[in-house]
């Protein structure tokens, strides 16, 4: 029995050595304030080892990755601190990005406004009132050039929360990088590109599921060959949770969606190991601390098993569930907003102890408006305090071996698998989404939560208990109402100045390509973008060919 | 038999956050009302049209995207254009306190902010319909 354990242990030691050669540990020696040395990893003594440990828990960097995807995790490098930001114009958002980078943030994360996310230009009648509100307005390549001005795209990785038009925005990013002299083989980042959760929970869909899945697999294929360092999808449980699901449902529906993408890509002719290493995940972190930490551990183990056993992936990178975490927006209260700082700290800690690869911490004022610069800074500082002051990053997976956490991890896995089996029986996630199954489950959970809060069975500090008379919160970020008009003018200027026959020609080629189901649309979209065709124009061509999804 | 109170719950604009709208819809149903939910991405004109067609007593709007200052007054306006200004409009979502006065001025009857118990909304709608809302 200890033979397997010793093999794993030796393998882990070798992996650590190898990692340390590439990325030396953050410190020569890790000690606490009492001068007690901290080991990279704590594990059972040889006489306490059982088969279950080797099977279910194992070592970090090894299948099934319960303890983390890298052998020594944050001993070498902290998670990426990646704050989601964007509002108003490209110019304003560019300023916020540079500010965040100066403050020690290590990656960018772009929030787009709703018209961009749903494929409408700023001057479309559908966009009225929404331009620049929840993110930055991007109409054409010109806006993208402004957004990324002065940011070296060979050094900074960028995450873009864009789904239905992900192909368009990715092409714009590639085009800007090329203008900076950075070839597309070198750019790094992530597009969300997860349409299934849009139908389920987030609402920024454009086309029906089938052509949407085609666009996604087109991106997988194109990037595998041309943009190999870009994460082609971020399969997201975040919004499922925000819509009201439980932690178990969050993992179950996300992994079921993940399986649907894998199935679609395989069906389109790709080999699993061609694209699976570039799949990334995105989870939420809510308040129940141990449940959340266990959730992340369980998710890793389930995905690893799935990829290895069901999909027969050979490449270990295909087994590893890499994920971004954002703290829970829906847990923030509009009442006594400073209390939210504490909620965010607890949630962020659960994500770190759960082994996240990158993290966004919400700002205290987000139940009221987009964050001010000061609130955004406090949110980033919260991560920095966890990283540099708490010491939790000095040893890998410190919660392992806790009776509570291990059992919770097992139980979450079991419950998740029950959901996944059920969805498989229904014919997979696409089918389940079309039948509204996940939507109903989430709504039911959301309503139960609401009733518990109203009956005070669930206490929300400052909201349904420990209340005070509130003052009006005046220090909120306001998006300039003038912005919409400026943006409208700007996109019209672009249309006036570009080479129109060339735009028409590129859009026409895209249309023809869209009619042939085997054609990869990415090169056509890239040409459209480079000719300064707008997001709305490109999406309208595809709307005409693919139709629109109209909801349940 | 007494006619049930009919409410249209609508999502104006492009915002996709419908957790609140769905919860309100369910809570109103649980309190015996008939609720029609429009689904996402409705224009003010579509919402007004639906309100008239469904013969509702109240229109409830939900927006979490910051578009409320443009979109809510447009719904009030659209109802007026169709001679249906007697249908009261209420709203909720991520709406800063300082915007509330403006929205009320524009003819929205009431704004419910995050953390409002659903029973408060139920009571308000009942008082609207029985005609004693303008205290």
From TrEMBL, chain A:
EC top class, as a word: isomerase
EC number(s) on file: 5.4.99.2
Keyword Isomerase in annotation: yes
Organism: Alkalibacillus filiformis
InterPro entries: Cbl-dep_enz_cat (IPR016176), MeMalonylCoA_mutase_a/b_cat (IPR006099), MMCoA_mutase_a_cat (IPR006098)
PANTHER family attached to this UniProt entry: METHYLMALONYL-COA MUTASE, LARGE SUBUNIT (PTHR48101:SF1), METHYLMALONYL-COA MUTASE, MITOCHONDRIAL-RELATED (PTHR48101)
Domain of life: Bacteria
Keywords on record: Isomerase
Residue stretches making up the Methylmalonyl-CoA mutase alpha/beta chain catalytic domain: 33-548
Name the record gives this protein: Methylmalonyl-CoA mutase N-terminal domain/subunit
From TrEMBL, chain B:
Listed cofactors: adenosylcob(III)alamin
Keywords carried by this UniProt record: Cobalamin, Cobalt, Isomerase, Metal-binding
Domain B12-binding: 4-135
Listed PANTHER family: METHYLMALONYL-COA MUTASE, LARGE SUBUNIT, METHYLMALONYL-COA MUTASE, MITOCHONDRIAL-RELATED
Coiled coil: none
Enzymatic class: isomerase
Protein name per UniProt: Methylmalonyl-CoA mutase C-terminal domain/subunit
Record-linked Pfam families: B12-binding
Native source organism of the sequence: Alkalibacillus filiformis
GO molecular function: methylmalonyl-CoA mutase activity
InterPro entries named in the record: Acid_CoA_mut_C (IPR006159), Cobalamin-bd (IPR006158), Cobalamin-bd_sf (IPR036724)
EC number(s) on file: 5.4.99.2
């Amino acid at each position: 029995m200890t033979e397997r354990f010793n093999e794993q242990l030796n393998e882990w030691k070798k992996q650590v050595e190898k990692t340390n050669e590439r990325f030396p540990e953050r410190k020569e020696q890790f000690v606490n304030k009492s001068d007690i040395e901290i080991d990279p990893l704590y594990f059972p003594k040889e006489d306490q080892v059982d088969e279950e440990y080797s099977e279910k828990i194992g070592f970090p960097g090894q299948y099934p990755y319960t303890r983390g995807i890298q052998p020594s995790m944050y001993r070498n490098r902290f998670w990426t601190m990646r704050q989601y930001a964007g509002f108003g114009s490209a110019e304003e958002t560019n300023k916020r990005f540079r500010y965040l980078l100066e403050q020690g943030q290590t990656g960018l994360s772009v929030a787009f406004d709703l018209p961009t996310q749903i494929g409408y230009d700023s001057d479309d009648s559908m966009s009225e009132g929404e331009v620049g509100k929840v993110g930055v307005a991007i109409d054409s390549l010109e806006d993208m050039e402004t957004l990324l001005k002065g940011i070296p795209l060979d050094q900074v990785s960028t995450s873009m929360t864009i789904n239905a038009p992900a192909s368009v925005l990715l092409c714009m990013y590639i085009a800007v990088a090329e203008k900076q002299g950075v070839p597309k083989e070198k750019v790094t980042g992530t597009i969300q590109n997860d349409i299934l959760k849009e139908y389920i929970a987030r609402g920024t869909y454009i086309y029906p599921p089938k052509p949407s899945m085609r666009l996604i697999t087109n991106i997988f294929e194109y990037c595998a060959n041309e943009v190999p360092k870009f994460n082609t999808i971020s399969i997201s449980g975040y919004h499922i949770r925000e819509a009201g699901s439980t932690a178990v449902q969050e993992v179950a529906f996300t992994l079921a969606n993940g399986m649907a993408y894998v199935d679609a890509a395989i069906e389109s002719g790709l080999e699993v190991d061609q694209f699976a290493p570039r799949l990334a995940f995105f989870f939420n972190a809510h308040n129940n601390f141990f449940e959340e930490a266990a959730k992340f551990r369980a998710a890793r183990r389930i995905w690893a098993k799935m990829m290895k056993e069901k999909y027969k992936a050979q490449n270990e990178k295909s087994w590893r569930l890499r994920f971004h975490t954002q703290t829970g927006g829906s847990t923030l209260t509009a009442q006594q907003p400073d209390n939210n700082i504490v909620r965010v700290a607890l949630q962020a800690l659960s994500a770190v102890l759960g082994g996240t690869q990158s993290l966004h911490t919400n700002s205290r004022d987000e139940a009221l408006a987009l964050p001010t610069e000061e609130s955004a800074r406090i949110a980033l500082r919260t991560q920095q305090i966890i990283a540099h002051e708490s010491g939790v990053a000095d040893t890998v997976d410190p919660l392992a071996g806790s009776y509570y956490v291990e059992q919770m991890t097992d139980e979450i896995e079991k419950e998740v698998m029950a959901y996944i089996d059920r969805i498989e029986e229904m014919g997979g996630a696409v089918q389940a989404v079309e039948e509204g199954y996940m939507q109903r489950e989430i709504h039911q959970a959301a309503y139960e939560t609401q009733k518990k809060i109203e009956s005070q069975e669930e206490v929300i500090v400052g909201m349904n208990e420990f209340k005070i008379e509130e003052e009006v919160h005046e220090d909120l970020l306001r998006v300039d109402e003038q912005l919409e008009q400026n943006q409208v003018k700007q996109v019209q200027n672009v249309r006036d100045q570009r080479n129109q026959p060339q735009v028409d020609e590129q859009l026409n080629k895209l249309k023809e390509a869209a009619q042939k189901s085997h054609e990869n649309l990415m090169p056509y979209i890239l040409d459209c973008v480079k000719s300064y065709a707008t997001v709305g124009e490109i999406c309208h061509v595809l709307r005409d060919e693919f139709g629109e999804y109209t909801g349940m | 038999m007494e006619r049930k109170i009919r409410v249209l719950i609508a999502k104006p604009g492009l915002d996709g956050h419908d957790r609140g709208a769905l919860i309100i819809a369910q809570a109103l149903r649980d309190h015996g009302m008939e609720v029609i939910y429009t689904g996402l991405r409705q224009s003010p004109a579509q919402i007004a049209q639906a309100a008239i067609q469904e013969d509702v007593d109240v229109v409830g709007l939900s927006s979490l995207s910051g578009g409320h200052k443009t979109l809510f007054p447009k719904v009030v306006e659209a109802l007026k254009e169709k001679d249906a200004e007697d249908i009261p409009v209420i709203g909720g979502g991520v709406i800063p306190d300082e915007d509330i006065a403006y929205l009320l001025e524009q003819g929205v009857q009431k704004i419910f902010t995050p953390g409002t118990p659903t029973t408060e909304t139920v009571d308000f709608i009942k008082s609207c319909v029985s005609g004693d809302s303008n205290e």
